[in-house]
Write a structure and sequence with these properties.
- With 166 residues, this protein is mostly helical.
- It has one domain: Ferritin, core subunit, four-helix bundle (Ferritin), CATH 1.20.1260.10.
- The chain contains five helices and no strands.
- The longest helix is centred in the N-terminal third of the chain and has 31 residues, at 18-48.
- The radius of gyration is 16 Å and the shape is elongated.
């Protein structure tokens, strides 16, 4: 259930106009919530996958979770650099992220693969929208951060989705 939450901003001498910085921080905090949610869902899959493909999937999902932490950190640090207050609290993550929820009853490998592929594809779509919005706001550096994260998400999406083919 994605909502718009107004994030406080700090005084800064950053050269971007206030409106641009504020728009970028809102985008960054929204995608931060998504990255945290991806990481939590990847850990859910990591802890609960079962079956003959257990070990490679267990390791793959753990890798996605670690990458999600890195993506979150990159976006949070950009928001802080813009004078924004970074909001990665659990309540904010739940309120801001509208990624598909993860069912707790999943145990089979195919179910986890399908769900993680869906989550990564949804995150990728949101990142593409944020790339466009950051560009329209006039913030090429934030646009670049989203592009970097989108490339990495797409690679993890490929690794997960490859398990559904062949």
């Amino acid at each position: 259930m994605s909502t718009t939450i107004s994030t406080p901003h700090l005084q800064t001498r950053h050269t971007l106009p206030d409106g641009t910085r504020h728009a970028s921080v809102e985008l960054l905090n929204a995608r931060l919530a998504d990255a945290i949610m991806v990481g939590l869902q990847a850990k859910q899959a990591h802890w609960n996958v079962r079956g003959p493909r257990f070990l490679p999937l267990h390791e793959l999902f753990d890798s996605v979770a670690e990458h999600a932490r890195e993506w979150a950190d990159l976006m949070a640090e950009r928001a802080g650099a813009l004078g924004g207050v970074v909001d990665g609290t659990p309540a904010s993550v739940i309120e801001r992220s509208d990624l598909p929820t993860y069912p707790t009853e999943l145990i089979d490998a195919d179910g986890h693969i399908e769900r993680m592929a869906e989550v990564l594809a949804s995150f990728s779509r949101r990142l593409l929208g944020s790339i466009e919005a950051a560009g329209e706001a006039g913030d090429p550096a934030t646009e670049d951060v989203f592009t970097e994260v989108a490339r990495a998400v797409d690679q993890d999406f490929w690794f997960v989705e490859a398990h559904t083919q062949g």
